[in-house]
Every structure is written in C-alpha cells, then in structure tokens.
Amino acid sequence: MTGEHRATPPRHDPPRHVVVMGVSGAGKTTVARGISDLTGLTFAEADEFHSEANVARMRSGVPLDDDARWPWLRALADWMASRDAEGVSTVLACSALKRSYREVLREGPPTVDFLHLDGTAEIIRERMSQRAGHYMPASLLDSQLAILERFGPGEPGLVLDLALPPAALVSTAVDRLGLLRRDVLAT
After folding, report:
1. What's the pTM?
2. Domain chopping of the chain, boundaries
3. For position 124, what pLDDT does the model report?
C-alpha cells in the first residue's frame, strides 16, 4: 500500500486509531501527517484505497454514491484492524462524511477516535483553488457538503475549526486526544 507511512512510533498500549475527517480541502492529509510526525502513528491516505473506477469517476466530476463507497470503507476498516492486530497505532485521512460511514470504520479496530476538521465553505473553496495535483475537483465540494453529517447525539468525536493554522490543529488534536508525543517518550 503506497499511502502508508510508518514512523518509529512510541508504544500506545492498546494501539490507537485516529480518523481525521471532513470534506475535501479541509486539510485532512496535512493534519493527519502532522499527527503522524508528532506521535509516530502510522499514516495512511484513504484516497489511495479507492478503486481505479472510483478515482476515474471523481476525476470526471461525478460524486461517488454509497454503493461505490462501501467496499472502500470496508478496506479502510480492515487496514486499521490489521494494524491493530500488529500492535500498530494509526492515523487515517478520510472524509468519513456520514455517520453510517463512520460506523463501518468503527467495525475495524476495537476503538477509533474521529477528528472532524470543520469550517466554512468559503475557506475550503479557497484552499481547493490553491491545491494542485488532486483528482477531486472543487466542483464536487457542494456534493460533499450536502451529505456531510456532523457528529450526532451519542456519537463521540472531536471537532476543530479548520481555520486554525495546521500546526495548531495538530498540537490541539494530539493534546485533546491524549496521544503520546515521540519527544515525551524519548526522555
């Protein structure tokens, strides 16, 4: 799997699994990589688990439907469960827009922490306009916003304002999720 980045992690007993979620352009990958760098959690980009058909569909500006998403979500849950069985903690950048999608991801490892990067459509559109090389066109943002289900009653999760600088988002997420930092364990 090409999207996986394994660092030398501090030991999290039991393993921890974090999904950094939100619509395209919210900064999921930047924040998830930052969490990985700070904590040693193994990083993966959910977009790299999509089938070629899904990628082609999105490239052409056609939003994915649930039938296209279920196998992808199961593959992500399986990936986290496999890492959990190895004793490896993970951080995954994944849209996870609906509660039902998050439920599928929760079927993988014993526990998953969700971090929702939330903010205004204007900020996200601005970020998407500056992004190069991503197959998800800005035109699909409206379809993602239309299906986004924020955390509902009884659904645990941490929400951070994506308007904060990436370093602040990473540091706040690590602290509020109670993740171990590499530098703390080195002492």
Report:
1. 0.86
2. 17-186
3. 86
